[in-house]
Amino acid sequence: MHSERTPQGTPGRNQLLVEGLRFVMCTKTLCSIDTGYYADTVEWCPVEGFEDYLVCGTYQLLERNNRDDGPEATCSEECSSVGNERIGNVQLYCHDETLGRLEKLQSFETSGVLDTKWLPGSLNGHAVLGAVTSDGELKQLVESTSYITSPQKLCLSMDWSSKDGNSQVVVSDSAGQMSLCKFNEGTSKLCQILQWTGHEYEAWITAFDAWNSAIVYSGGDDCLLRGWDTRTDCQKPTFTSKRHDMGVSSIQCNLSYEHIMATGR
């Protein structure tokens, strides 16, 4: 499964593709959907009973052309952000395997969506989706609530942890900061419990350790991969890796073998 972007200036060609594995390294396109705005993130729901649900988060920059009073859509991020607007939405689909198509169930308009993640388990019988946006918000869409973790900054990445029955979420932002939030006891409202500076530039990615929910990893535009122990004040990383020659934008822990993870740009 992947999203496909078309060259700059070609409208109406943003495609969401769902693919099924036929043979090793071979895929088959099952269906294709035009998402309108650029498809930035896609996530299948992992919660039992909701495995056929797919969410797509979109992001598009509306550049205000000085020669034209109206906004002009563009995918360029190199232009100045002054006077521009970042828009997007969260689109919920259900995959009908019998008919071989995606049925669009709902679309929630918001600012640009940079990342989405499903809570690994259900909350009060509901599948919970988190989304981070270009206006610095962490949105919990099942309850239609939001929490501003990074005012005046872009939230870039998020990850859930639900070990030992305690659900937490970590968010990284464009100022290199990390924010750790949890649910208030007995409620589905999020509150921030820790915030720290992890990188000199943008913190592109963050993730919990799959085997130890107290450990958080982060990757930044400063080419550093870092580990953090959230049982401390996180003023110093547990380790810093300088092996990357470009910004670190992807982290994935191995779910079968402890102490192994993949990182990349």
UniProtKB/TrEMBL annotation:
Which GO terms of type biological process are on file?
A: methylation; protein histidyl modification to diphthamide
EC top class named in words: hydrolase
Q: Which GO terms label this protein's molecular function in UniProt?
A: diphthine methylesterase activity; methyltransferase activity
Its keywords, alphabetically, are: Hydrolase, Methyltransferase, Repeat, Transferase, WD repeat
InterPro entries from the entry? Answer: Diphthine_MTase, WD40/YVTN_repeat-like_dom_sf, WD40_repeat_dom_sf
EC code: 3.1.1.97
This protein's record includes keyword Hydrolase: yes
Q: What is one term from the GO cellular component aspect held by the record?
A: cytoplasm
The pathway entry for this protein reads as:
Protein modification
The protein's matches in PANTHER family, at most eight in alphabetical order, are given as: DIPHTHINE METHYLTRANSFERASE
Q: What is this protein called?
A: Diphthine methyltransferase
Q: What does the organism's lineage look like at the top? A: Eukaryota, Metazoa, Cnidaria, Anthozoa, Hexacorallia
